[in-house]
């Protein structure tokens, strides 16, 4: 576990928050250092036990036979889709809800984009008997309906956020506002390695179990480290979770795959960047309490982002990941909506695994650049795609893709 920073990652990170939030941030930093870094009261032991019993860790590292054959490289899948809840998000949500309990808080709030973090937080809160409210953009509520059902079934309130485009950026802003007025009794479970310190460090540490397990598993399987580790990047929590254990292994190429959306161009007039490729195209600025790379116009206004996958649709990125890209340790690449959709179908048809649209971006990179991942690659399969089925069918029908999803069976059944 890393304990080496003060919340700054080169030029990025820090704590850019209103005065009213400073006491809560300081209290959280103290709790993070004592319970997470120093294992006070056996916090980390309880966390690991619950991750195993409730979460189902360790997740497997699976050799993907068809993909390996097709791309002539050994492809291993880190199966975070098999974690309870269907995505890596539970690693962090369980850690933070448990931490809130140790801190004596009695209310949990969280933002969600794809709904996976909201679902994971609702599950963790029910598991640990804490009341929970989730803020979710109205656009995301409509495109991720199954996760809204899941949150409600786990007893969480879901508060629609109707400002802006109704996606993750607005949901985070609204949750921060709630936190600022209820700091005494409430803990804000942020869903990625974003926000003011200590969130980026703490979320990374809760997620780093992914890479720790994968590093052990690949060495057991092959006797060596992989040539590359590939993960999709929205805010970057599955990315840093997969990369952290490999950061000192200089020979291992760490590849962060962002959402190229429909185009890398930006429209200054409408304030829209039809992509979420913050690491590749963003500029330095401050958002949600941290200095990082952002999609912004020439006046510094945050642009509206876009991705076919709700969980990558964010104009910012974690400050640590931005720093690792600047310093050359992590390579930032991107694939567009169509490539991600094709990769989604390919993995479903060839490996029998329906991936989250977010994770499909990592496979899209393999599909487009099989020569750029070396002879042995570990791809983080951050989540499963059940939540994306409606979006995928709709988006696939609207495009002329190399793959076919014929759903005429429904019409035939009605005859
Ligand atoms: C399955 C899955 N993967 C990836 C992400 C992107 O988040 P992060 O970049 O923090 O891993 C999300 C976000 O909701 C997700 O649900």
Account of the protein in words:
A hairpin with a 2-residue loop joins strand 11 (283-287) and strand 12 (290-294). The strands form four sheets. Strands 3-4-14-9-10-13 form a six-stranded mixed beta sheet, with helices on both faces. By secondary structure, it is of the alpha/beta class. The mean pLDDT is 95. Helix 5 (116-127) packs parallel to helix 7 (145-153). The protein contains 17 helices and 14 strands. The structure holds pyridoxal-5'-phosphate. Pyridoxal-5'-phosphate is lined by residues 87, 113-114, 116-117, 192, 232-239, 311-312, 356, 358-359, 382-383.
Structure, briefly:
By secondary structure, the protein is of the alpha/beta class.
Class derived from helix and strand content? alpha/beta
How many alpha or pi helices?
17
Query: What would you call the shape?
Result: globular
Oligomeric state of the chains in view: single chain
Ends apart, CA distance between termini: 60 Å
Q: Taking Cα atoms only, what radius of gyration do you get, to the nearest Å?
A: 20 Å
Helix content: 40-55%
Mean pLDDT: 95
Task: Note the topology.
Layout: E1 8-9, E2 12-13, H1 22-37, H2 43-53, E3 61-63, H3 65-71, E4 74-79, H4 89-102, E5 107-112, H5 116-127, E6 132-137, H6 138-143, H7 145-153, E7 157-161, H8 168-181, E8 186-188, H9 199-207, H10 209-222, E9 228-232, H11 237-243, E10 253-261, H12 278-281, E11 283-287, E12 290-294, H13 319-326, E13 330-336, H14 337-351, H15 357-368, E14 376-381, H16 389-397, H17 409-414
Parallel strand pairs: 4-14, 5-6, 5-8, 6-7, 9-10, 9-14, 10-13
Antiparallel strand pairs: 1-2, 3-4, 11-12
Helix pairs in contact: 2-4, 4-5, 4-9, 5-7, 9-11, 10-11, 14-15
């Amino acid at each position: 576990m890393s304990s080496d920073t003060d919340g700054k990652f080169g030029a990025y990170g820090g704590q850019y928050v209103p005065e009213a939030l400073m006491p809560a941030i300081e209290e959280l930093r103290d709790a993070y250092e004592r319970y997470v870094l120093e294992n006070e009261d056996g916090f980390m032991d309880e966390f690991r036990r619950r991750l195993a019993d409730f979460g189902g860790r360790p997740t497997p590292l699976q050799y993907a036979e068809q993909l390996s054959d097709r791309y002539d490289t050994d492809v291993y899948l880190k199966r975070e889709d098999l974690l309870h809840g269907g995505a890596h998000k539970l690693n962090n949500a369980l850690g933070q809800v448990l931490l809130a309990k140790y801190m004596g808080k009695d209310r949990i709030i969280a933002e969600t984009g794809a709904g996976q973090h909201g679902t994971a937080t609702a599950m963790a809160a029910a598991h640990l008997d804490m009341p929970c409210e989730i803020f979710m953009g109205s656009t995301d509520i409509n495109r991720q309906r199954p996760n809204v059902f899941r949150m409600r079934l786990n007893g969480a309130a879901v508060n629609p956020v109707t400002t802006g485009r109704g996606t993750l950026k607005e949901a985070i802003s609204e949750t921060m506002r709630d936190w600022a007025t209820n700091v005494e009794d409430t803990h804000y479970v942020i869903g990625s390695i974003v926000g003011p310190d200590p969130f980026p460090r703490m979320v990374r540490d809760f997620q780093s179990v992914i890479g720790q397990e994968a590093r052990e598993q690949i060495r057991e399987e092959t006797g060596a480290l992989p040539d590359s580790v590939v993960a999709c990047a929205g805010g970057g929590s599955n990315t840093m979770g997969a990369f952290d254990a490999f950061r000192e292994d200089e020979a291992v190429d760490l590849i962060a795959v962002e959402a190229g959306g429909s185009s890398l161009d930006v429209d200054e007039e409408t304030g829209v960047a039809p992509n979420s490729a913050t690491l590749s195209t963003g500029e330095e600025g401050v958002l949600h309490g941290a200095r990082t790379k952002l999609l912004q116009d020439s006046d510094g206004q945050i642009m509206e982002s876009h991705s076919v996958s709700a969980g990558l649709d964010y104009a910012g990125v974690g400050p640590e990941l931005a720093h690792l890209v600047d310093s050359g340790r992590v390579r930032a690449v991107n694939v567009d909506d169509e490539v991600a959709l094709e990769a989604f179908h390919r993995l479903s048809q060839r490996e029998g695994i329906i991936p989250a649209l977010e994770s499909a971006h990592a496979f899209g990179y393999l599909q487009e650049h099989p020569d750029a991942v070396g002879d042995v690659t570990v791809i983080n399969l951050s989540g499963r795609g059940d939540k994306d089925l409606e979006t995928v069918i709709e988006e696939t029908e609207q495009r002329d893709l190399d793959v076919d999803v014929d759903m005429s069976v429904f019409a035939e059944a009605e005859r």
